[in-house]
Every structure is written in structure tokens, then in C-alpha cells.
Amino acid sequence: MQAVQIDSTSALLILCAFGVAWLAWGWYLGRKNKTLDDFALAGRNVGFALATATAMATWITSNTTLVAPQLTLQFGVWGMLGYSMAALGLLLFAPLAERIRKLMPHGFTSGDFILARYGRAAWAVFIIISLCYALGWLVSLSMAGGLLLSALSDLSYLTGMTAILLICVGYTLMGGLRAVIATDFVQSIVIIIGVVVIAVVCINTVSFETLHTELSARQPELLNLLFPAAIMFFFNNVFFGIGEIFHSNVWWSRAFAFAPGIGRRSYFTAGLLWLPIPIVTGFVALAAVTLGVVPPSPDMVGPMVAAKLLGDIGAVFVFIVVFSALASSMDSLLAATSDLLTQDVFRKLLRPDSDDMSLLKASKVIIVLLGLATWLISLPKLATLGALLNFTGAFVASTIWPIVYGIFDRRLTGKWAALAMTLGTVSGLCGYFLVGFYVAAIVSCSVSLLVCRVGLARATTLFDWQQLQEAPRVLK
């Protein structure tokens, strides 16, 4: 028995409504952007409510709404609990965000910090890791848009994937980070309401007792708390989530954009609000067995179960909720990656004498190019969203300790930071291909920590924090 689908006309109307609304709002907010700081960092004065909403909405991605249910169906209870541990990334980044704002009051990107703190070699490794992750996340989000539309309506994967890219590129291009944060605020409200409604309907339709009985009889391994691969996934996802946030310019750009004193409170609150959402979306996926929903792809189980529970109107509701979740992450990633490429590649390597207006134009061109590159790579459906995302775990987990030690300990040098990120990434990839995706981040983080500890033990100099007060923008 398949879930209810939206007819193609209704699906197109929803897409058009989304597109017109977000593009118009992006244009309206973009009128206030007069400088590069306005476009890239929303004037560096974002308040608590908007800061919390954008942090939470950005972290409610294709992972939370599509991959968390997929992994719950694969790993059971540990799948939903493991995904909820990604909240630790937001919670632990809270004190880092405050420290970053104080150390680098004029910083733009995470690359600014790495270059000033560790030098060119570590900076080059970090930029490669950051761009690999950003592209992987962008592709997963565009794929998710295509999968969502094809699973819930008669429209094709290509249509959905193209639509979400066009809409997000459009309003990000017109409004910059100011538009991204404003739309995130609305999208976070839509997402929270949607998740609560779907969870309540699921509990009322499929009781806990019925769900437990069905799973015990038909898929008992999903309730097994001693499932070895699931336990490994639990711990792997902790380090994956922390690495994703600690290194990504999505979160650093917000640390620079939030008003002084806002970062710690907003990230901590966002983490607490986000924590239960993967558990709820994962729980919904377990009802697939009872409801007889057989998704065409494992990463579509969540939306299809929700649409089945809510019926015709519910399918539209689910579509809007998941589409909001995808858009709230894609716009943030487009803006942050554009900043990284503009400041760390265009300005530092290609045009060191560029003025703010030249950089603003370059940033907008890069947003369009990022959208085009993502569309081309997403044309063939490369893998499930879970497999694609966890591949990047080997990259991002290697950056955790170089960043933590770089922010709080003056002893670690650039040579050891570069070595930690390189060896961590390589070893994590080996674990990914030789063992499984659920060990990549653990292996990468462990090797990186070991290298950092050796570097600290052999340290003979101390870094001067004053060097971070004026973030460098040109390579020496």
C-alpha cells in the first residue's frame, strides 16, 4: 500500500507559491543591503530571536526530515537517538561562537581564522575539506528536493531538484544573509508545527503498543539495543555532527553576524529546541511497517509515512514542511559557501586589491555558479542521502580538534594542525570504504586528536591572540 500522492497541478501550484513568496521577500529585504557586511553578515547585528531561529532551522535539514527516518528504519532505536546527538554540535559550538566573536570582531569566514591562526598549509587543507563538505551537503539537499517531489507527487525528480535550487538561489542572491535569516525564522515555525502535528497523528493512529508488537514480530532487530552497527553509528554521528558545525562557515558566518553576546545563548537554545526533532521524525518512520508503506527509496520513508497518516491534505502539509526544512538549509549553505569562496579564494588568491563592491558582485556570481554546479552534479541520483552525507564525515571530523585547540590553546602550530586534518581525513575515508560509513567520523576524529596531542607535547612557542583581532584577507 502506497502513501497518498499530490496531483501534479497541486504540486506545481505549491512550488510557484513558494517561489513567488520567497523571491519577493528576498527582494524586499535585499533593498537594505548597502555594503558587503550587509549582504554577507546581515550588518553583524542579528538579535536573539532571529539568531536562534536561523540556527535551528538551518540544522533541520534533509538529514533531520529524510535521513533520520531512513537510518531509524536501518538501525532502529539507535538510529533516532544517534541522530538526535547531532544537537551536541550546536550546544558545544555555543561557547565557541562567543569566543570567536571576541577574538575576531572583523572576521568574515572560518578560513580567516585558520589562516591567521595556523598559516597557509593548514588553511589550504581546511579550504579543501570545507568545499568538499559544502558541495556534498548542497548536492544532498537538491537530491532531497527531487526525491521529495517524486515520492509525494506525480512530478519528476528533475523538476523537484531544479525547483528548490532556483528558489533558494533566487532569494539568496537578492537578499543575502538578511533574507536567509528572515526566511529561516518563518520556516522554523512551519517545521516545528508540522513535526508536532505529524507526531500526534502518528501516536493516535498507530499506538505505542501496536507499533512495538508489529516491530517485535516482523523486524525485532530495530528494537535491539545491542545491535553492534547501530551502536557504532550512535557514536559516529556524535563526532560527525560536531565536526559539521565546528568547521563549517555556515555556523562561523552566523557567529560573526550575531550581535555581541548573542552567539552563546542562541546556539545553546537552538540545540535544545532541535534535540527532539530527529527522535520524532525517526519514530514516524517506524510506523511504516504497521501502515504497509514501502518507499521507493529508504530516504523517502519519513515523508511517505506522514502523508499516509494525514491523507490528501496531509500530503500537501508534509510537502510544505519538508520543503521548508530543505530550503532553510540550502539558502544558508549557498550564502556561507559563497562567502568562503569570495573571501578565501577570490580575494586571498585572485584579487587581493578588490574593494567591497567588487567582492559583493563576485559573491553574487559565485552563488549562481554554486547553484549551477550543484544542479549538474545532482542530475544523476548518485546514492542515498545517508550514504552521501556520511561520506563527508571523514572530512569534517578531522577538523574538530585543530579548531578547538586553535581557539582555546596557544600551543598548537600550523604544521601539526595541517597534519591532523590530512591524516584524519585519509584514515576516516579508509574506515568508510573498508568498514562502513558508521565508523568514518570516529576514526577521523581519533586520528586527528592523536596528532594534535603529539603537536601540543612538542610545542615550543605560544601563539599571540592579538594576531586575530584583524582577520587577514590576503595571503602573505
UniProtKB/TrEMBL annotation:
<feature type="transmembrane region" description="Helical">
    <location>
        <begin position="358"/>
        <end position="377"/>
    </location>
</feature>
<feature type="transmembrane region" description="Helical">
    <location>
        <begin position="155"/>
        <end position="173"/>
    </location>
</feature>
<feature type="transmembrane region" description="Helical">
    <location>
        <begin position="185"/>
        <end position="206"/>
    </location>
</feature>
<feature type="transmembrane region" description="Helical">
    <location>
        <begin position="313"/>
        <end position="337"/>
    </location>
</feature>
<feature type="transmembrane region" description="Helical">
    <location>
        <begin position="41"/>
        <end position="60"/>
    </location>
</feature>
<keyword id="KW-0472">Membrane</keyword>
<feature type="transmembrane region" description="Helical">
    <location>
        <begin position="121"/>
        <end position="149"/>
    </location>
</feature>
<feature type="transmembrane region" description="Helical">
    <location>
        <begin position="80"/>
        <end position="100"/>
    </location>
</feature>
<dbReference type="InterPro" id="IPR001734">
    <property type="entry name" value="Na/solute_symporter"/>
</dbReference>
<keyword id="KW-0813">Transport</keyword>
<dbReference type="InterPro" id="IPR038377">
    <property type="entry name" value="Na/Glc_symporter_sf"/>
</dbReference>
<feature type="transmembrane region" description="Helical">
    <location>
        <begin position="383"/>
        <end position="404"/>
    </location>
</feature>
<keyword id="KW-0812">Transmembrane</keyword>
<protein>
    <submittedName>
        <fullName>Urea transporter</fullName>
    </submittedName>
</protein>
<feature type="transmembrane region" description="Helical">
    <location>
        <begin position="267"/>
        <end position="293"/>
    </location>
</feature>
<keyword id="KW-1133">Transmembrane helix</keyword>
<feature type="transmembrane region" description="Helical">
    <location>
        <begin position="226"/>
        <end position="246"/>
    </location>
</feature>
<dbReference type="Pfam" id="PF00474">
    <property type="entry name" value="SSF"/>
</dbReference>
<feature type="transmembrane region" description="Helical">
    <location>
        <begin position="416"/>
        <end position="443"/>
    </location>
</feature>
<dbReference type="InterPro" id="IPR031155">
    <property type="entry name" value="DUR"/>
</dbReference>
<feature type="transmembrane region" description="Helical">
    <location>
        <begin position="12"/>
        <end position="29"/>
    </location>
</feature>
<comment type="similarity">
    <text>Belongs to the sodium:solute symporter (SSF) (TC 2.A.21) family.</text>
</comment>
